[in-house]
Design goal:
By secondary structure, the chain is of the alpha+beta class. 31% of the residues lie in helices and 25% in strands. It has helices spanning 4-16, 26-33, 42-50, 55-70, 154-159, and strands at residues 76-82, 85-87, 97-100, 110-124, 131-141, 168-169. Strands 1, 2, 3, 4, 5 and 6 form a 6-stranded mixed sheet that branches. Helix 1 packs across helix 2 (26-33). It is globular and about 55 Å long.
Length: 170
């Protein structure tokens, strides 16, 4: 999935996200996590621009980790699927098309932008009294060039050879 140097860089960046008040930029995460004085900051940028990784495999590994940590043994896994349209304009925005927008005003319900199909796992975390949805997988939906939004999550259900460690899915 990730080579050891990339895995170390990812761990540093993930640690930098919730720690501190710096901007949530790649450089901000790098500085907050601490290696800014020890390792050169372009290493963090190269992680996103040149690292070889399969987002589906990373997402499936994250899903297994979320289930192992937050879902009680034998309990059902609750999944939430979302297809929110992110409004984007311009000729150079990859994947921006006119498509259905459930929050659009007017009778047509059409908007222009990117639509990501996102799957999250609904869990109870120890520090909140309510359930939260932790996003684990996503895919850009481009109308008329890929499968339909309702079929987007289907490959994820068959792409993992490892089952979730503690729960059955619903």
């Amino acid at each position: 999935m990730l080579h050891p140097p990339s895995c170390t860089t990812m761990a540093v960046l993930v640690t930098g996200v919730p720690s501190g008040n710096s901007p949530h930029t790649v450089t901000g995460m790098w500085q907050t996590a601490g290696p800014a004085g020890k390792a050169h900051w372009p290493r963090a940028h190269r992680f996103f621009s040149r690292a070889v990784w399969d987002l589906d495999q990373v997402g499936l590994a994250l899903a297994r980790a979320v289930v192992a940590r937050f879902v009680p043994r034998g309990a059902a896994v609750t999944l939430a699927v979302d297809d929110t349209l992110f409004h984007r304009y311009g000729k150079k925005v990859h994947g921006a098309k006119y498509q259905h927008d459930g929050s659009a005003k007017g009778r047509d319900g059409i908007g222009r932008g990117n639509c990501f199909v996102i799957i999250g796992i609904v869990v109870t975390v120890p520090f909140l009294a309510r359930q939260v949805c932790l996003p684990v997988l996503f895919r850009l939906h481009i109308p008329k060039t890929s499968i339909s939004k309702t079929e987007q999550p289907e490959p994820w259900s068959t792409s993992s050879s490892k089952p979730c460690p503690t729960a059955s899915s619903t």
